[in-house]
Amino acid sequence: MAHKKKLPQEPVNTTIESLTHDGRGVSHVNDKVVFIDEALPGETVDFVYTDIRRDYAEGKVVKLYNRSEQRVDPQCPHYGVCGGCSFQHVADEQQIRIKEQLLGEQFRRIGKVDIPQIWEALTGPHWGYRRKARMGVKFVAKKNRVLVGFRERRNPFLAEIDSCKVMHPLVGENLINLGDMIAKLSVRDKIPQIEVAIGDNQCVLAFRVLEPPTAADKQILREFGRQYGMSICLQPKGPDTIVPLEGEPEVIPQYALPEQGVEFVFRPAMFTQVNYEINRKMISRAIAALELNRDDRVLDLFCGLGNFTLPLATQAGFVVGIEGDLPLVKHARHNAERNQLSNVEFHVADLTKDVSDQPWSKQKFNKVLLDPSRAGASEILHNFRHWQPERIVYVSCNPSTLARDAGILVNELGYTLVKAGVMDMFPQTAHVESIALFVKA
Question: How far apart are CA 181 and CA 174, in angstroms?
Fold first, then answer.
């Protein structure tokens, strides 16, 4: 078995040249690029190596000689240990500028497209915004303590934290209480994760349990939920096995879009946007950009549970939502019925495959909205030759695949990029949520 090469222990002095998309400082030492955690451009630092590879190295700051104007003091005492955030040392407004610069660079380098107009960034609360999460749980026998939270930075171990400032306070400020409660359970070492789902007025915690909890365990969970206003559920197997504790009512979280008069209900493990304020602003921006009217036939690709589809249907003539996950499609149909929207339909389809023979795909749509996963939407874009939409709004959680797909739309399919911009869905993190508008040239 090969032993990992021992890293140099002596600090190295260097000056930071630029910043990566995930918030690390970039420098060169002995002709090798080094990515340094929590270092900002223009700063001179001492760092120690945390990893050395053939083409690059990584490090962390041990001494700061001059402070960048972009630097702020992290608000979380666990910053640097917990891997949930990587931008807390950067001023909030500068985080936006960095993400805007990254978006522009990716469009130019990958898509060979310039952004003619930068949309004003959509911003919201910088802290306590996160309403969906999957938190790790670990019973540490040596400390007789249960850890609840997220993994350490660049490490598979669960971070030892007592709070999380980006999580909604109902959960983020109760991690210690949550861990102390789990420590009392007989199955404390059989709970690997908790699914957190917080609606406008509800909080559901779904505990993944590898062994059935005892009656006493369930009573402890029940009392904790009542004390902190949380609905406690158990998940013995997959996401579809999540059920409330016996005798407790099923609490189904919901979120509303007041501007469009739409309300959604969702199951705890279903995908929803984590930041409700930004989600509302994002939907309103997409609707305005599509310039909807009652003559429009709109196609919503990668529609999920209908987060865009239903609000689009309040202003368009007819909307078709396509999603690859059957449970999400069933829930989207349910939400359409709850909101009494009859001008919308949903279909299940794998949008990474050829869908040209499907009945919905043979229809015509004059406007399209896409909100794909990180992999992007390159496979489905070639169907646009048939649909010939006049306006396209593309929402993305990965600027590199958005840039790639923008290149296809502009350079192969003849669309014009009108504008693009970022949306601060995940403040304090390197995650970049963006939106772009294309029109038929």
Answer: 11
